[in-house]
Amino acid sequence: KGQTLNPHILCNVKSGRGFNYEHTGTLLCPAGLDWANSEYVSGIFHLVSGSDMLIQVSGDQWPVFLYANYTYDAEDPWNVLLRSGLLISAFKHIFTSPSSVDQEPKATQSGNACIYGMCSVIKASIAYVTTQAQFALFSVQIFSCTDLITNSEHFDSLVLELLNNAKEKDEVDQLLIWWNHWVFNLFCCVVSDHYS
Asked: What is the reported pLDDT for 154?
Protein backbone atom coordinates (compact mmCIF):
# COMPACT_ATOMS: atom_id res chain seq x y z
CA LYS A 1 0.00 0.00 0.00
CA GLY A 2 1.30 3.40 -0.93
CA GLN A 3 4.42 2.00 -2.61
CA THR A 4 5.23 2.53 -6.25
CA LEU A 5 6.25 -0.61 -8.08
CA ASN A 6 9.16 -0.48 -10.48
CA PRO A 7 8.52 -1.41 -13.20
CA HIS A 8 4.96 -0.14 -12.95
CA ILE A 9 2.04 -2.56 -13.34
CA LEU A 10 -0.54 -1.25 -15.79
CA CYS A 11 -4.04 -1.38 -14.29
CA ASN A 12 -5.72 -2.55 -17.50
CA VAL A 13 -3.07 -5.02 -18.69
CA LYS A 14 -2.62 -8.27 -16.78
CA SER A 15 0.02 -9.98 -18.92
CA GLY A 16 2.86 -8.76 -16.71
CA ARG A 17 1.32 -10.03 -13.46
CA GLY A 18 1.35 -13.40 -11.78
CA PHE A 19 4.60 -15.31 -11.55
CA ASN A 20 5.92 -13.27 -14.51
CA TYR A 21 6.49 -10.25 -12.29
CA GLU A 22 8.72 -10.19 -9.23
CA HIS A 23 6.32 -8.39 -6.87
CA THR A 24 3.15 -10.30 -7.78
CA GLY A 25 5.12 -13.55 -7.93
CA THR A 26 6.38 -12.91 -4.41
CA LEU A 27 2.82 -12.36 -3.15
CA LEU A 28 1.49 -15.45 -4.95
CA CYS A 29 4.31 -17.72 -3.82
CA PRO A 30 2.96 -20.51 -1.59
CA ALA A 31 3.67 -19.98 2.10
CA GLY A 32 6.58 -22.06 3.22
CA LEU A 33 8.36 -21.74 -0.14
CA ASP A 34 11.07 -19.14 -0.57
CA TRP A 35 10.52 -16.89 -3.59
CA ALA A 36 14.11 -15.70 -3.21
CA ASN A 37 15.30 -19.27 -3.90
CA SER A 38 15.98 -19.39 -7.63
CA GLU A 39 15.08 -23.11 -7.81
CA TYR A 40 11.50 -22.40 -6.69
CA VAL A 41 11.16 -19.42 -9.00
CA SER A 42 12.54 -21.41 -11.91
CA GLY A 43 10.10 -24.26 -11.21
CA ILE A 44 7.14 -21.92 -11.03
CA PHE A 45 8.17 -20.17 -14.24
CA HIS A 46 8.44 -23.53 -16.00
CA LEU A 47 4.94 -24.43 -14.79
CA VAL A 48 3.45 -21.15 -15.99
CA SER A 49 5.23 -21.22 -19.34
CA GLY A 50 3.99 -24.77 -19.97
CA SER A 51 7.30 -26.62 -20.02
CA ASP A 52 8.41 -29.19 -17.44
CA MET A 53 6.30 -28.94 -14.30
CA LEU A 54 8.92 -28.76 -11.60
CA ILE A 55 6.68 -27.13 -9.00
CA GLN A 56 2.91 -27.13 -9.24
CA VAL A 57 1.09 -24.42 -7.33
CA SER A 58 -2.38 -25.66 -6.48
CA GLY A 59 -5.40 -23.89 -5.03
CA ASP A 60 -4.88 -25.52 -1.65
CA GLN A 61 -1.48 -23.93 -1.09
CA TRP A 62 -2.02 -20.66 0.74
CA PRO A 63 -0.19 -17.82 -1.01
CA VAL A 64 1.91 -15.53 1.14
CA PHE A 65 -0.31 -12.48 0.40
CA LEU A 66 -2.84 -13.95 2.87
CA TYR A 67 -0.46 -13.45 5.81
CA ALA A 68 0.26 -10.28 7.79
CA ASN A 69 3.42 -8.62 6.50
CA TYR A 70 3.47 -11.39 3.85
CA THR A 71 5.23 -13.64 6.37
CA TYR A 72 4.12 -17.17 7.14
CA ASP A 73 4.50 -18.25 10.77
CA ALA A 74 4.93 -22.04 10.74
CA GLU A 75 4.70 -22.17 14.55
CA ASP A 76 1.35 -20.35 14.69
CA PRO A 77 -0.24 -19.96 11.25
CA TRP A 78 -3.49 -18.51 12.63
CA ASN A 79 -1.57 -15.67 14.24
CA VAL A 80 -1.13 -13.97 10.87
CA LEU A 81 -3.41 -15.82 8.41
CA LEU A 82 -5.94 -13.66 6.51
CA ARG A 83 -4.57 -10.49 8.13
CA SER A 84 -2.58 -8.86 5.35
CA GLY A 85 -2.76 -5.21 4.49
CA LEU A 86 -3.45 -6.16 0.88
CA LEU A 87 -6.63 -8.00 1.93
CA ILE A 88 -7.81 -5.09 4.09
CA SER A 89 -7.22 -2.66 1.22
CA ALA A 90 -9.02 -4.96 -1.22
CA PHE A 91 -11.97 -5.34 1.16
CA LYS A 92 -12.27 -1.58 1.64
CA HIS A 93 -11.92 -0.97 -2.09
CA ILE A 94 -14.72 -3.44 -2.88
CA PHE A 95 -17.14 -2.88 -0.01
CA THR A 96 -16.67 0.60 1.44
CA SER A 97 -15.11 2.71 -1.33
CA PRO A 98 -11.77 2.99 -3.11
CA SER A 99 -10.99 6.16 -1.16
CA SER A 100 -11.59 4.38 2.17
CA VAL A 101 -8.32 2.54 1.64
CA ASP A 102 -6.81 5.78 2.91
CA GLN A 103 -7.20 6.47 6.61
CA GLU A 104 -10.23 8.70 6.25
CA PRO A 105 -13.15 8.01 3.89
CA LYS A 106 -13.71 10.88 1.46
CA ALA A 107 -16.02 9.34 -1.12
CA THR A 108 -18.80 11.45 -2.53
CA GLN A 109 -20.97 8.39 -3.21
CA SER A 110 -21.97 5.58 -0.88
CA GLY A 111 -19.96 2.37 -1.07
CA ASN A 112 -21.47 -1.09 -1.35
CA ALA A 113 -21.38 -1.64 2.42
CA CYS A 114 -23.38 1.52 3.05
CA ILE A 115 -25.86 0.83 0.25
CA TYR A 116 -26.61 -2.64 1.62
CA GLY A 117 -26.39 -1.74 5.33
CA MET A 118 -23.27 -3.83 5.86
CA CYS A 119 -21.64 -2.94 9.20
CA SER A 120 -19.55 -6.00 9.86
CA VAL A 121 -17.27 -8.41 8.09
CA ILE A 122 -18.61 -11.92 7.54
CA LYS A 123 -16.79 -15.11 6.61
CA ALA A 124 -18.09 -15.15 3.04
CA SER A 125 -16.90 -11.59 2.44
CA ILE A 126 -13.37 -12.55 3.55
CA ALA A 127 -13.41 -15.52 1.16
CA TYR A 128 -14.71 -13.30 -1.65
CA VAL A 129 -11.98 -10.71 -1.08
CA THR A 130 -9.20 -13.30 -0.94
CA THR A 131 -10.39 -14.78 -4.24
CA GLN A 132 -10.65 -11.35 -5.89
CA ALA A 133 -7.20 -10.34 -4.62
CA GLN A 134 -5.72 -13.57 -5.93
CA PHE A 135 -7.32 -12.98 -9.34
CA ALA A 136 -6.01 -9.40 -9.42
CA LEU A 137 -2.46 -10.61 -8.78
CA PHE A 138 -2.52 -13.30 -11.48
CA SER A 139 -2.07 -12.61 -15.19
CA VAL A 140 -5.28 -14.44 -16.13
CA GLN A 141 -7.52 -12.08 -18.13
CA ILE A 142 -10.97 -13.55 -17.41
CA PHE A 143 -12.36 -14.61 -14.06
CA SER A 144 -13.58 -18.17 -14.46
CA CYS A 145 -14.42 -20.96 -12.04
CA THR A 146 -12.79 -23.46 -14.38
CA ASP A 147 -9.48 -21.63 -14.72
CA LEU A 148 -6.67 -24.03 -13.82
CA ILE A 149 -4.03 -21.34 -13.21
CA THR A 150 -5.79 -19.49 -10.37
CA ASN A 151 -8.08 -22.40 -9.42
CA SER A 152 -10.38 -19.72 -7.98
CA GLU A 153 -13.38 -21.89 -7.17
CA HIS A 154 -11.26 -24.38 -5.24
CA PHE A 155 -9.35 -21.58 -3.51
CA ASP A 156 -12.59 -19.82 -2.46
CA SER A 157 -14.07 -23.11 -1.22
CA LEU A 158 -10.98 -23.85 0.86
CA VAL A 159 -11.06 -20.42 2.51
CA LEU A 160 -14.76 -20.83 3.34
CA GLU A 161 -14.21 -24.38 4.55
CA LEU A 162 -11.51 -23.18 6.93
CA LEU A 163 -13.62 -20.27 8.20
CA ASN A 164 -16.64 -22.54 8.74
CA ASN A 165 -14.68 -25.33 10.44
CA ALA A 166 -16.15 -25.82 13.94
CA LYS A 167 -12.69 -26.79 15.26
CA GLU A 168 -11.39 -23.35 14.25
CA LYS A 169 -14.25 -21.36 15.81
CA ASP A 170 -12.17 -19.53 18.44
CA GLU A 171 -9.54 -18.48 15.88
CA VAL A 172 -12.20 -17.43 13.36
CA ASP A 173 -14.05 -15.39 16.01
CA GLN A 174 -10.79 -13.58 16.82
CA LEU A 175 -10.15 -13.07 13.11
CA LEU A 176 -13.60 -11.49 12.60
CA ILE A 177 -13.02 -9.15 15.56
CA TRP A 178 -9.69 -8.15 14.02
CA TRP A 179 -11.25 -7.57 10.58
CA ASN A 180 -14.13 -5.53 11.97
CA HIS A 181 -11.69 -3.33 13.86
CA TRP A 182 -9.62 -2.63 10.74
CA VAL A 183 -12.48 -2.28 8.27
CA PHE A 184 -15.48 -0.87 10.09
CA ASN A 185 -14.02 0.91 13.13
CA LEU A 186 -14.18 4.35 11.48
CA PHE A 187 -16.52 3.45 8.62
CA CYS A 188 -19.48 2.35 10.81
CA CYS A 189 -19.60 5.81 12.32
CA VAL A 190 -20.02 7.20 8.80
CA VAL A 191 -22.66 4.57 7.93
CA SER A 192 -24.57 5.26 11.17
CA ASP A 193 -24.57 8.99 10.47
CA HIS A 194 -25.78 8.31 6.92
CA TYR A 195 -28.84 6.40 8.19
CA SER A 196 -29.64 8.80 11.07
From this structure: 82
